[in-house]
Every structure is written in C-alpha cells, then in structure tokens.
Amino acid sequence: MLHPRKRPSQLICEMNVAGFAAVMWVLVHLFILDVQMPHTRAISVDLAEAEHPRSMPEADREDAICVAVMRDGSVVLNNDKIPVDQIPARLKAELKRSDVPTVFIKADARSRYGATIEVLDAIQSTGTRNIALIVEKRSATRFEGRSATKLSLE
Fold it and tell me: What is the CA 154 to chain-centroid distance, rounded?
C-alpha cells in the first residue's frame, strides 16, 4: 500500500507575475509607439490606376506637400481639411517650409473630375509648376509603394 507523500507544513504564498509583466510591457510599447509615430499620411483614398507610372520616393517624405481630393469633393492639405479657395494661401506657406518643390495630388478615383480640376487650378495659381498625381500601377497585383505621373505644364 502506498503512503501519501507528506507535504511541508509551510504555505507557498508567492505569485508569479512574469507573464503579467510581459503583457503590460508589450501594451505600454504599443501605446508609446502609436503616440510617437507621425500620422502625416493617414489620408486614405482609392487611387486611380495608370499603365506606366514613375516611382517617386520623395512623395513619402515627411515634408512632402500632399493635396488629397476625397470622394465627396472635399480637399485635404497635409491632414488639414480646407476649402478650395484657401489652397493658394496655405500652399504658398507650405512651399516655403518644404524642401520638396513638388506638390503631390492624391485624387480619389471616384471623385468628380471637376473637383480635381478645381484643385489643380488652385495649385497652378500659386505659380507652382512641379505637380504630380499619385496613382497606382495597373496590373494583376498591386504595385508596392507610391508612384506618380508627372504633369507637364509648359
């Protein structure tokens, strides 16, 4: 007959908090990184597609000037929703601050053509000649990164 093992009379009153600490560490880092990450290019539009776009890595720079034409016709200049008539004044100020002389237009593929032309006219009224349309490459698989079609305004 087996005799049960005798347990020590001392109680173990320890709590293993390693798992809890690891989870908390991950959560803290997620929140800290989320706060520190710049959200300058958070504007999401369904871009038009083109056959032969050029890669323009300067469109991804933080100081790049990006004007977005949303599906409903509203305009966003570097994350600030503005009316079309304020584009020239705001754009002149942005061009003075930016090292990138090109203005990038992200027009939603389903936005009205007239709204995009209004924005293009407002940009041209500032005297800016370096304008690029952000597009996606037309293919079976999506093109990685941003491409642009350079507009010839001369």
Answer: 30
Contact indicator for 96, 130 with CB cutoff of 8 Å: no
Report the domain count for the chain.
Answer: 1
C-alpha to C-alpha distance for 58 and 37, rounded to whole angstroms: 19
Measured in whole angstroms, how far is the alpha carbon of residue 90 from the centre of its chain? 20
- Rounded CA separation 151/154 (Å): 9
Q: The domain spanning residue 101 has which CATH number?
A: 3.30.420.270
pTM of the complete model beyond 0.85? no
Q: 4-43, pLDDT tens digit by residue?
A: 666 666 777 777 888 888 988 888 877 776 555 444 455 7
Find the helix or strand (DSSP H, E) in which 102 lies.
none
In a domain, 23, yes or no: no
